[in-house]
Backbone:
């Protein structure tokens, strides 16, 4: 009987520890996905699509952002190359339902909503998907702590000390992967690295995201924000990669509400 009690106590301790780790993982991802954001923002973005053979294509764009009642709206206005020029994407965060995403396709001269079933597709032909260009909600996944103190170095040489957390999507049909392993930086709560595992062979990594550089940026109102400046996604199947660089970010300086409309998507004019 004493042995049974000891076993019961041991199992209770294990269960409690597992529960605490699950709670900790959830809290860390929640903080990572709800970092303080400015009321308005704008920046130049450069995407570089790099083929396995080294061929490079540049895709410049402008990004505009704002918060409305705590929810984020983001616009991407692609300025090149010719095949993608004047494509524009609007993302609108929603609290009680799935986020809205709209795209203007200049070849068709048409604005259309991007349905949930298409958001795993490439964002304007790069290795980032539409899902990657937005922040995933913490309650969209089940989170499990794998390790509490992992040191990694990403391409570009930046080193991080991280929590290592497994995140499994609750609705697998909405994403292109089976699960993610996230390395969350302990200083900033940014995802230093994310490994995406294949749906068909869950032992294989299909792509890897890394945050290669970040800064503390002071806004026009004096508030300080953590800002990702360089990031990369590598497709492990094809060897193709996309490198993203932020230039000239400006926070809390005001952005016209006209940018966040379907009229702007189709016209490119915010006046």
Residues:
């Amino acid at each position: 009987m004493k042995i049974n009690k000891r076993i019961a106590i041991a199992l209770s301790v294990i269960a409690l520890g597992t529960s605490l780790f699950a709670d900790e993982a959830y809290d860390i991802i929640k903080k990572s996905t709800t970092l303080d954001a400015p009321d308005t923002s704008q920046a130049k973005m450069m995407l570089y699509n790099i083929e396995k053979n080294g061929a490079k294509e540049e895709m410049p764009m402008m990004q505009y952002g704002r918060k409305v009642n705590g929810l984020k709206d983001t616009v991407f206005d692609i300025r090149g190359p010719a095949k993608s020029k004047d494509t524009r994407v609007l993302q609108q965060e929603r609290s009680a339902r799935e986020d809205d995403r709209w795209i203007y396709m200049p070849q068709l001269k048409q604005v259309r909503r991007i349905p949930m079933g298409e958001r795993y597709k490439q964002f304007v032909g790069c290795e980032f998907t539409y899902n990657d260009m937005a922040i995933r909600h913490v309650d969209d996944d089940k989170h499990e702590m794998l390790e509490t103190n992992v040191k990694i170095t990403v391409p570009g040489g930046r080193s991080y000390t991280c929590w290592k957390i497994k995140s499994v999507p609750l609705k697998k049909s909405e994403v292109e992967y089976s699960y993610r392993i996230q390395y969350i930086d302990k200083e900033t709560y940014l995802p230093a690295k994310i490994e995406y595992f294949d749906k068909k062979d869950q032992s294989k990594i299909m792509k890897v995201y890394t945050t290669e550089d970040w800064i503390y940026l002071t806004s026009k109102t004096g508030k300080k924000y953590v800002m990702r400046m360089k990031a990369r996604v590598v497709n492990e199947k094809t060897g193709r990669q996309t490198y993203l660089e932020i230039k000239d970010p400006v926070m809390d300086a005001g952005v016209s509400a006209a940018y966040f409309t379907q009229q702007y998507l189709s016209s490119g004019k915010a006046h």
